[in-house]
Amino acid sequence: MNQAFGTMARVLAWALAIALVALPVVAVVNGWIGAERWPLRVLRINDGLEQVDTARVRAAVLPHAQRGFFAVDLGDAQRDVARVPWVAGVEVRKKWPDVLEVRIAEHVPFAHWGDARLLSTRGRLFAAEGVEAPAEMPRFDGPENRIADIVALYNESRDLFGGAGVQVERVVLDARGSWQLTLSSGTEVIVGSQEARLRLARFARMLPRLTTGRSEPLARADLRYTNGFALVWAQPEAAEAAAAAGAAAPAGAPANRVAVAPISHALRIQKHGLT
Q: Domain POTRA: where (predicted)?
């Protein structure tokens, strides 16, 4: 009985000794004590940032840094910094005795996406709120799981129309898989869902021939035909009036929209058949 009691006493003594050693460590790691003794005094943010607001980064990191060197939660700090606009990736680490280092990679915008987001050169979508992106970037819209397809068609279309001095300003893929482009000339190109690349290549090849010698702008081209294109030409007077009124158009209204006389598709297909 005395032996068992002695064994239990020794176990309790060892447990108490371990607790006395471990509790201060746990308290320091959890920030209960030690923040004043081992504070984080220096915050280092990598150079070369052009868009990220370093003041917002500091504000995001400060609540975590105040817990001290041992208690700072690097994962939580990274999560909060990642929410700052333009941040594509972030790594937060500490360096003895009092340094917190933040390394940030910025988003590089490639295109506008829908009304409220941007698409980066890495193919990632991020919020456009608080972001001043170049207005001349192309505009995309469509299902998020088709980002790669939209970018690929844009790149191919840009090469196809570039030879004629025309830029591709907008690419839209709707839920039914139908493509639509807007060119820098103001032409809306309805491509459809079938053989999009083949149809665009044919149209781009014939575009200089179709527009040469015509004073009226090409307002719309429908490529969803086997043997040709349905073209709608804007009246020059209407085009000039629309351009003059463009500055006064409400936000979100289509630019340079003009009234055109209805024309039968059959006639257009006959006149502009593929060769």
A: 38-107
